[in-house]
Amino acid sequence: MIKVEDLHRHFGGFRAVDGASLTIETGSITGLIGPNGAGKSTLFNVIAGVLPPTSGRVIMDGQDITGLPPHQLFHKGLLRTFQLAHEFASMTVRENLMMVPGQQTGETIWNTWFQRGRIEREEAELRRKADEVLDFLTISHLTHEKAGNLSGGQKKLLELGRTMMVDAKIVFLDEVGAGVNRTLLGTIADAILRLNRERGYTFCVIEHDMDFIGKLCDPVIVMAEGKVLAKGSAADIMQNEEVIEAYLGTGLKNKDMVGA
Fold first, then answer.
1. Is residue 144 part of a domain?
2. Mean of pLDDT values over 83-104
3. Distance CA 15, CA 24 (A)
4. Which one of 13, 30, 73, 189 has the fewest CB atoms closer than 10 angstroms to its CB?
5. Contact 177, 3 (CB under 8 A)
């Protein structure tokens, strides 16, 4: 689905992404790990159109999407979440979901005067879909809660729910477990697995927690110093001497491996 070819993103003399090449297969849950400063989030930002590349290409379903802005990629089904959730704090959880689909009839003043019936039908359908998403994510009890009052984990679930309000093909999740307690992290993991298996979502996940990565991801791609260092199953990656050395040196052999 996604093919990254010799991608570079430089900030002055710093090469945040330095010739990375990788493939994300359709229907996979691909993990992306590496030490701090490896270039993972920058790679996500370039793929998702948040940053233009210095050079290289990004291909999606055979089409060159290099440098396309996020709103165009959104309509192609490529979505990206961030380490910090971006909710509309004063709106309810349901309203946050209903805001996601673009080109709604009620977005223009003219239509609010002359297309009231159409707007009401659209809103009823969006409300129905939002309630279906909340039920899928097991957070229906939060329907009328202000999004700003949610916990960190609940906000991450809400972000995942937003991807379900449109026809997402591939979702890039950046540290979905950051600041999330173990119970909610399990709920998030279950939702990702269900979206993958039942609805055909493709995911690429940056995450610290190797237990989370091991449960969800195959394959796992390792980045270091802006380059792709290794690719394989989570079990193989955790035994890879190059990968161990790239994280914290040989001391990591005697402790649990963590991502970045």
1. yes
2. 82
3. 22
4. 13
5. no
Does residue 159 lie in a domain region?
A: no
> Is residue 234 within 8 Å of 213, Cβ to Cβ?
yes
> CA 82, CA 94: separation in Å to the nearest integer?
20
* Statement to judge: residues 125 and 201 lie in one domain: no
Shared-domain flag, residues 18 and 68:
yes
Render pLDDT for 115-152 as a digit per residue (tens, 0 to 9).
677 767 888 999 999 999 999 999 999 999 999 999 98
User: What distance, in Å, lies between the first and last C-alpha atoms of the chain?
Assistant: 25
Whose tokens are 């010739």? That residue is 19
| Cβ–Cβ < 8 Å for 234, 214 | yes
CB within 8 A of 61, min separation 6: which ones?
1, 169
- Its domain, for residue 6, covers 2-85+166-258
Q: Is residue 156 part of a domain?
A: no
pLDDT at site 115: 65
The answer to whether 137 and 169 have CB atoms below 8 angstroms apart is no
Do 69 and 140 share a domain, yes or no? no
